[in-house]
């Protein structure tokens, strides 16, 4: 009977475009021409499910997700599969990057129920949005011990028809468990300094001494972990923390997980040596890795870290910045190889030995030695045969080894390699590019602001500060309402939409604070205060907890989860605590420090029991325990003497401190309104002057750079 019904439905006319054609999300638009009668997440879909007594098939993914593309091609573009979906379900598509709150809820449900987590996530819901079954990728025919997607659809439809009450009971129990989990109040505990070295020791127990990173394959960058280790080194001088972070970054920079031609990092490595990447490039990964690389450079003075940071920033400017400012979200792993009609992963990035000889001529042998190029290809782990004998470039030999083999000096070799890189970048630009997700997310752009601000500070590159300023201006004019002081999360196709989530407010406030400590424009600090105020008023429970959705939002979710995990992206709560501690000093707001202390206490037991879950929150513990330090420089921002003082501040790892440059005129007046302490801080005898304050007691102001250095280093 099911086969006859499917045949009849296939014969019926199918609309050329479904409802997703009206959406702006690049991911939803990818599915707009599917024969599936997709709905976006919203009241129309929910009402249809209730009216027709049908379960909802919820499919969550994102536009650069490899297995999302695979399942679309195999199942959602297939008329027979679409017919089953349309007859028995209300099909709903969600872009997890637009609605991470929806994704978080249902991913938690899938993992908790044992259905497995990942993307695409495909769940079956009751009409009141409670999940009763699901999984991730389903194959088009039985494979790997798993049923086909059509078999799953048929069985779920049968159970819904014959055993609906049991399914609804199971869904209700799961929903109740999720609600209870979301509402559970954690046990508070006072922050303990012993937690910090204990967490370093815990990381050391799983550190890969050979290849860097933690644990085995697959390996993800995990910037919050590296950030904690580098901050702990700056706080305490812990050499093990520095070596784990620096060792991981060295290995990543040598591997195929780093784009050796175009700069920037791919999503993760499928092997333990960082050799074979999953080729997606995400804005949030690269934006977080830049400050980490710069901190490693400050700590080690290894030029390689500065190079990787600079090339990553340049990649973001070249390939992710939108005209007029702001940054797009991601680039796909898949693209069309030359002469092919089928997209494959990594096609844009891999090279045959022959292609390299044709492009580089006499320099090809040297380049091949340096970057591990082999005649038959070097992809050791190619489970799907996608690389076809091509080469993933990685640093197989050091610059010193390569220079010695080919009889060149380091300088000569670097010039040859840089010329080769430019040649390959130009040639690669003629290939079919991977899809770029051209939505602008407030949260991820906040991370980008931090990256470019830090790049301007440490690398002394004004163009990076200018890029951050462009992005900030775009976000303020397109995603922010100054009357309500509220953010929209997403801009795409000329439309700002989706109410901002906690991460949007927290990450953007952090980026503005970093930009303020770069260009010292008072408006950055003023806006950061507004955003943090909204975060406290609308997302905080007043006891130190932060929900992902605001108190007046999340009406389409049966549970509102808190922010309690620093993963590929940091938790909004972790970033919020750092923001509160910084704002309490920069804007002289002691009540904000109290809010930070409440948040740390609220997460205290969790930090003590599972410290690796929130390494960035643990770094906030270190910031809160540190003696407050402020540096105020009185003088024109472009004065060479001011720039020399700033160079001293940014020249090495330092304990947490607030930094401000105070000029004369309107800039000074606005800063005085924000922080009355700076009122009496002015140049002495017409010379730019530094005021270094420790625990709210200021040393004698000085214009002597040697004295400034000693004060910054804690010397008298």
Global structural class: alpha+beta
CATH superfamily of the domain at 2-183: Glutaredoxin
CATH fold topology of the domain at 2-183: Glutaredoxin
Based on CA inertia axes, which overall geometry fits?
globular
Mean pLDDT: 93
| Alpha plus pi helix count | 28
CATH C-level class of the domain at 2-183 is Alpha Beta
Beta-strand portion reads 5-15%
- Biggest sheet strand order reads 1-3-2-4-5
- What's the main sheet like? 5 strands, mixed
Q: Poorly predicted ranges (pLDDT <50, ≥5 residues)?
A: 1-15
Q: In the CATH hierarchy, what is the architecture of the domain at 2-183 at level 2? A: 3-Layer(aba) Sandwich
Cα gyration radius (Å):
27 Å
Distance between the termini: 88 Å
Number of strands: 20
Helix content: 40-55%
Oligomer: single chain
Task: Briefly say what this structure is.
With 716 residues, the chain is an alpha+beta fold. Among the domains are: 2-183, 3-Layer(aba) Sandwich (Glutaredoxin), CATH 3.40.30.10; 349-430, no CATH class; 627-716, 3-Layer(aba) Sandwich (Glutaredoxin). It has 28 helices and 20 strands.
Describe this structure in words.
With 716 residues, the chain is α+β, with helices and mostly antiparallel strands. Among the domains are: 182 residues, Glutaredoxin; 82 residues, no CATH class; 90 residues, Glutaredoxin (3-Layer(aba) Sandwich), CATH 3.40.30. 50% of the residues lie in helices and 10% in strands. The chain has 28 helices and 20 strands. The strands form six sheets. Strands 1-3-2-4-5 form a five-stranded mixed β-sheet, sandwiched between helices. Strands 13, 14, 15 and 16 form a four-stranded antiparallel β-sheet that branches. A hairpin with a 2-residue loop joins β19 and β20. α20 runs antiparallel to α21 and α22 packs parallel to α25. The N and C termini lie far apart (88 Å).
């Amino acid at each position: 009977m099911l086969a006859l019904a499917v045949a009849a439905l296939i014969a019926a006319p199918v609309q050329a475009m479904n409802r997703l054609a009206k959406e702006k999300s690049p991911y939803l638009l990818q599915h707009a021409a599917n024969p599936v009668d997709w709905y976006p997440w919203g009241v129309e879909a929910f009402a249809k499910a209730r009216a027709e007594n049908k379960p909802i098939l919820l499919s969550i993914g994102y536009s650069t997700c490899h297995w999302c593309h695979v399942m679309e091609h195999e199942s959602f573009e297939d008329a027979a599969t679409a017919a089953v979906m349309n007859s028995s379900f209300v099909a709903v598509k969600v872009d997890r990057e637009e609605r991470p709150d929806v994704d978080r809820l249902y991913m938690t449900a899938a993992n908790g129920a044992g259905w497995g987590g990942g993307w695409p996530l495909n769940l079956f819901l009751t009409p009141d949005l409670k999940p009763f079954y699901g999984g991730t990728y389903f194959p088009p025919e039985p494979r790997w011990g798993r049923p086909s997607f059509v078999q799953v659809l048929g069985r779920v439809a049968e159970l819904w028809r014959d055993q609906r009450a049991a399914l609804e009971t199971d869904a209700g129990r799961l929903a109740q468990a999720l609600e209870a989990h979301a509402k559970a109040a954690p046990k508070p505990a006072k922050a303990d300094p012993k937690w910090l070295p204990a967490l370093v020791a815990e990381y050391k127990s799983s550190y890969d001494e050979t290849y860097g990173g933690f644990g085995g394959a697959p390996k993800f960058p995990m910037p919050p972990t590296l950030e904690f280790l580098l901050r702990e080194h700056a706080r305490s001088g812990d050499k093990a923390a520095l070596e784990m972070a620096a060792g991981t970054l060295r290995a990543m920079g040598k591997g195929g997980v780093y784009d050796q031609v175009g700069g920037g990092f791919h999503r993760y490595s499928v092997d333990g040596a960082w050799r074979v990447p999953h080729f997606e490039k995400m804005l949030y990964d690269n934006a977080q890795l830049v400050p980490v690389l710069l901190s490693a450079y400050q700590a080690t003075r290894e030029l390689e870290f500065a190079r990787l940071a600079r090339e990553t920033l340049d990649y973001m400017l070249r390939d992710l910045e939108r005209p007029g400012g702001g940054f797009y979200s991601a680039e796909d792993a898949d693209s069309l190889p030359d002469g092919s009609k089928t997209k494959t992963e990594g096609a844009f990035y891999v090279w045959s030995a022959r292609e390299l000889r044709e492009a580089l001529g006499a320099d090809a042998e040297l380049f091949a030695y340096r970057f591990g190029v082999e005649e038959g290809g070097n992809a050791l782990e190619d489970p799907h045969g996608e690389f076809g004998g091509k080469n993933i470039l990685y640093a197989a030999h050091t610059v010193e080894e390569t220079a010695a083999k080919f009889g060149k000096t380091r300088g000569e070799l670097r010039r040859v390699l840089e010329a080769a890189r430019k040649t390959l970048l130009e040639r690669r630009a003629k290939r079919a590019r991977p899809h770029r997700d051209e939505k602008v997310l407030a949260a991820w752009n906040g991370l980008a602001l931090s990256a470019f601000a830090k790049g301007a500070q440490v690398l002394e590159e004004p163009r990076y500060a200018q890029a951050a300023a462009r992005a900030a201006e775009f976000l303020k004019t397109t995603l922010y309402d100054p009357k309500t002081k509220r953010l929209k999360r997403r801009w795409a196709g000329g439309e700002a939409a989706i109410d901002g989530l906690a991460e949007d407010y927290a990450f953007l406030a952090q980026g503005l604070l970093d930009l303020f400590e770069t260009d010292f424009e008072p408006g950055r600090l003023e806006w950061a205060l507004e955003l943090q105020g909204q975060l406290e008023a609308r997302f905080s429970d007043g006891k130190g907890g932060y929900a992902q959705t605001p108190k007046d939002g999340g009406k389409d979710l049966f549970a509102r989860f808190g922010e309690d995990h620093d993963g590929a992206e940091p938790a909004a709560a972790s970033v919020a605590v750092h923001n509160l501690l910084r704002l309490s000093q920069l804007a002289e707001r002691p009540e904000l420090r109290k809010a930070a202390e409440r948040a740390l206490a609220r997460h205290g037991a969790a930090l003590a029991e599972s410290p690796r879950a929130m390494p960035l929150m643990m770094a906030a513990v270190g910031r809160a325990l540190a003696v407050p330090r402020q540096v105020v420089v009185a003088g024109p921002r472009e004065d060479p003497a001011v720039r020399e003082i700033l160079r001293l501040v940014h020249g090495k790892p330092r304990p947490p401190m607030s930094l401000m440059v105070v000029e004369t005129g309107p800039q000074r007046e606005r800063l005085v309104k924000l922080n009355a302490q700076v009122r009496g801080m002015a140049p002495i005898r017409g010379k730019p002057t530094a005021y270094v304050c420790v625990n709210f007691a200021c040393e004698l102001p000085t214009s002597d750079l040697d004295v400034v250095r000693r004060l910054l280093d804690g010397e008298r």
